[in-house]
Design brief:
With 452 residues, the protein is an alpha/beta fold. The protein contains 14 helices and 17 strands. The strands form four sheets. Strands 1-14-13-17-15-16 form a six-stranded mixed β-sheet. A four-stranded antiparallel β-sheet has the order 2-8-7-4, with no helix packed on it. The longest helix has 29 residues.
């Protein structure tokens, strides 16, 4: 359809001997439920959920234990049946502490009453969106934006195309690949349900062409269906970024500071549409997802885990870590977060747990040599070296003018830099400070307006 080069910039990180090839052939296994689950009330972008239970309560599997506390929020549900033994602050993969519900598992897996939709085609778009919201579904590609919000267009916005992200462009990760291979019919059904929820007719599934078996499985599953197309994409990081994927599949360019909705598109991950299919057809809320355990582990694999399972149980199921592990990462090596300990719970955001060796060790920064590799790699056509310098000098207004808020934090610039400059980290810091300053200025203006 389009040329080989699907979007500006990008690169192809080397994965070594423990990359996707090791895990892509490993079928999804169900990880046994733990003795205790630790379920954070904040597993999504937006306001944390408000606890609906207290210590001593008995809960059932699938029961709502946290209510969405705002428009951009999502409920959370019990992933086991048992007793609430505490509501406490816990550390999550980002390194922050958030409130969580701790449940002692009774190992009965007693489900709450589920309400599957036998004829979803008879429901309105609003009714389908409400089911998706109540199921606590968020973007499972990593962003964790509440899906029901994404599927509800703002006034004046028109949705024309649904773009499905099956790229899984991060090194090592194979959870989406295995899901496409093992659940292609359910994924296609989920796409059809999302089309109903959006009241549109066209969907494009973008899959990198290093997953031809998944492409063939999806093609077979949607054979004879109108409006759903599977598009093979060249292997290029960050192919799965929303703006890059929209451009690659439609040639529509999301404007600076804009979202896919601004060009008539909505992007959902394959794991998200599978969760939507389970919520609508089976009545099941999002209490499980697939994770890749890869890198320097004795038996890497892909696992279906209960939300709230500690990382240490996943490592144990893989036969433990190899001796050369330097760092544990939650997510992919490009955009993931380093873990401080293995007791941290896995959440809706956990697509991978990677045990990396010396290649992940911190390396000393050297002066910029003006080679331009970061500029070539940047998919947003920014100049990371300039942004890095401005942020380090505290010139935040100039950094904003130079486009730092458009950085998608993909890590391509840092990876490409031969001087090992922490370019992505500088952009992330700059964005955080600029947004905090804007928030403070808005609060000050509101306070002064109140006085008047």
């Amino acid at each position: 359809m389009f040329g080989k080069k699907m979007f500006p910039g990008g690169m192809h990180p080397h994965e070594g001997v423990n990359g996707k090839a090791v895990n892509s052939g490993n079928a999804i296994r169900e990880l046994p439920a733990p003795q205790r689950v630790i379920i954070p009330l904040s597993q999504h972008i937006g306001a944390p959920a408000a606890a609906l239970v207290k210590k001593g309560d008995t809960v059932m599997m699938g029961q709502k234990i946290g209510e969405a506390a705002g428009y951009v929020s999502a409920p959370v549900h019990a992933s086991v049946s048992g007793k609430v033994v505490g509501i406490e602050n816990v550390e999550v993969a980002s390194g922050t502490n958030v409130p969580a519900v701790v449940i002692e598992n009774d190992f009965q897996d007693t489900w709450c009453e589920l309400q599957p939709s036998n004829h979803p085609e008879t429901l309105t778009a609003e009714e389908l969106q409400q089911i998706i919201r109540e199921a606590g579904i968020v973007g499972l590609g990593g962003a964790t934006f509440p899906t029901s919000v994404k599927l509800t267009p703002a006034p004046g916005k028109t949705i024309e195309k649904l773009i499905i992200n099956g790229a899984e462009c991060e090194p090592y990760l194979t959870a989406d690949h295995r899901l496409m291979l093992e659940k292609p019919a359910e994924i296609i059904d989920g796409i059809r349900l999302v089309l109903l929820a959006l009241d549109i007719k066209e969907a494009i599934i973008g899959v990198e062409d290093n997953k031809m078996d998944a492409i063939q499985a999806l093609l077979a599953a949607c054979e004879g269906l109108e409006g759903i197309k599977v598009q093979a994409l060249p292997v290029m990081y960050p192919q799965g970024g929303e703006k890059q994927l929209v451009y690659a599949t439609t040639r529509r360019k999301v404007p600076t500071g804009g979202l896919p909705i601004d060009v008539g598109c909505v992007v959902c991950n394959v794991g998200t549409v599978y969760a939507i299919q389970q919520a609508i057809r089976e009545g099941k809320p999002l209490i499980q997802r697939v994770v890749t355990m890869g890198g320097l582990v004795n038996n890497p694999g892909n696992f279906l885990f209960r939300i709230g399972t500690p990382v240490e149980q996943l490592i144990e199921a893989c036969g433990g870590l190899q001796p050369d592990v330097v760092k544990l990462i939650s997510g992919g090596p490009m955009m993931g977060a380093a873990l401080s300990n293995t007791k941290i719970p896995m959440t809706k955001a956990t697509s991978g747990i990677l045990a990396l060796g010396k290649e992940a060790a911190e390396k000393p920064e050297n002066p910029c040599i003006n080679c331009g590799r970061c500029v070539t790699a940047c998919p947003m056509r920014l100049v990371p070296t300039k942004l890095d310098l401005l942020v380090r000098n505290g010139s935040f207004e100039e950094a904003e003018k130079a486009g730092v808020l458009n950085c998608v934090e993909c890590g391509a610039c840092t990876f490409a830099c031969p001087a090992k400059r922490l370019l992505t980290q500088s952009c992330r810091t700059g964005k955080r400070i600029i947004n905090a300053n804007k928030k403070a200025a808005a609060a000050k203006a509101a306070a002064e307006a109140t006085k008047e």
